[in-house]
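Me: I hope this is not a bother. Any chance you could explain this protein sequence and its structure tokens? It all follows right here:
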Amino acid sequence: MRRQPHPVVQGGNLHSLWDGLLSRADKPNDVKRVVAELEGDQLLSEVDADGEVEEWIAESHELVKSFAYAPEIVAATELDGELQPINLPEAYLKEAGRRARQRVVAAGLRAEAVLEELVAQPVAP
């Protein structure tokens, strides 16, 4: 029997919860609003856009291990039977939001750096 992936009270499952931490809105003006909020956030000064893709992947993997899979989630997955929805504490949700904003700012800055590098390369005749 296949278990449902980490069900949480606040968002269906852990993956969808993290997907919606910034916003579930997808209209252009909603996206512009989120970008404006992120641009005014101190997180920009905390993001390192340097490094290699492998390092960025390792960062994300470490975040999952050290934070996303909170003790409540790990403990619930170790129980026998059907995985019950986990009610994540408010402190987890608040910190998850902060870390999600930080990851999306990093992704944007890193994508910018990669694109600038590609544009700077000479075009073969």
Summary: The chain is about 60% helix and 5% strand.
